[in-house]
Each structure stands twice: as structure tokens, then as C-alpha cells.
Amino acid sequence: MHRYVTPGDYNVTLQVSNTAGSGRKTEENFILVKVVPEEPLNAAFTASPRSGTAPLTVEFGDRSGGTPVSWNWDFGDGGSSGVQNPNYTYRSPGSYNVSLTVSDINGSSTLAEPGYIVVSGSPVTGVPFWKTIPLSWLFAIIVLIIAFFAALAYFYKRRKGPGPTTATVE
């Protein structure tokens, strides 16, 4: 058995021999070896989740066609990766463009998705609780506290009565 590894047309020669004699037959261009083209590179990817609150960890998955041998991810916030299926954490709110470039020995393919990941603001940390309350709520709370103490003073005064009375004797 012979294995052909280089594309081309090959001649085949059959040679036989026995005690009665020998013979030889050659066929020109009898075997044709072609290269079967690989599926062309076509960058594609998925991500989960695609939106959420910062810090948001996203799992990216390569779904590219062809046979990539290298991956170059750009996560849109200055971060990047060369891993096929990376996890990436977005730390700030914003809408992020994501791109993937895949390469093989014949070239590369890039897919860029604008606004692909959307990260909303995170809960405020390290700030006193009262600074997170809207100003209108603070005014309402102050008015309620004043009204509470005014009502308390009113009822306390009524329960005690009008105070000492004096009578005049003649």
C-alpha cells in the first residue's frame, strides 16, 4: 500500500512476474490526489450573561468555523485574552464592544459586536447609609420625627392635666 501526501497526478505501473515470464503495464495519470479545502475561518462567539450589575463575570465561548489555532479577545474595556473560552469580569458600568480574532496558518477572521455586554451600576459601598437616601426622603423623615415629638408632648401634657389649680377663699 502506498500513501500519497502531495497533491498531483500520478502514473501507476503494474509489474508481474512468474516462472512463465514477466510483464509490465503503465497507466498515465491514473491517480489524482486533491487537497480537500478546510472549512474557512469564520469568527463567532457567545457570552453568558450579556448584562448585569458590576462586577459582572461573563463566560465567553468560541463558536468559530474552520480550525483556529489562536484566539485574540478584546473585551472593550482595555482587557484582552488569548484563551479559546475565557471568563472575564467587568468592574465598571457601561456598554462594551467585544471582538474576537481567530487565526490559522492561512489567515484570520474577526467578529466585532458593538454594545455586546451591558453592565449597570453596582450598589454603592463604603458610603454612609444616610448619604444614599434621596434628599426629599430626608426632609420627609425629619418632618415625621418633629411631628412625632410634637404629638408626644401634646399627649403627655393632656394626661397630666392642666397643672396645679388655686382657689381663692374670701
Structure commentary:
With 170 residues, the chain is of the alpha+beta class. Among the domains are: 45-120, Immunoglobulin-like (Sandwich), CATH 2.60.40.10; 129-160. The protein has one helix and ten strands. It has one helix at 135-160, and strands at 8-18, 21-33, 45-48, 51-53, 56-62, 70-74, 80-81, 87-90, 94-104, 107-120. The strands form three sheets. Strands 4-10-9-6-7 form a five-stranded mixed beta sheet, with no helix packed on it. Strand 6 (70-74) and strand 7 form a beta hairpin. The protein is rod-shaped and about 170 Å long.
Q: How are the SSEs ordered, and which strands pair?
A:
Layout: E1 8-18, E2 21-33, E3 45-48, E4 51-53, E5 56-62, E6 70-74, E7 80-81, E8 87-90, E9 94-104, E10 107-120, H1 135-160
Parallel strand pairs: 4-10
Antiparallel strand pairs: 1-2, 3-5, 5-8, 6-7, 6-9, 9-10
Provide a quick synopsis of the model.
This protein has 170 residues and is an alpha+beta fold. The chain has one helix at residues 135-160; strands at residues 8-18, 21-33, 45-48, 51-53, 56-62, 70-74, 80-81, 87-90, 94-104, 107-120. Among the domains are: 45-120, Immunoglobulin-like, CATH 2.60.40.10; 129-160.
Give the strand content: 35-45%
Low-confidence stretches: none
Q: Helix count, per DSSP?
A: 1
Indicate the structural class: alpha+beta
Q: Kindly report the average pLDDT value.
A: 86
Short descriptors:
10 strands; Immunoglobulin-like; 44% strand; 1 helix; 170 residues; single chain; 5-stranded mixed sheet; alpha+beta; 3-stranded antiparallel sheet
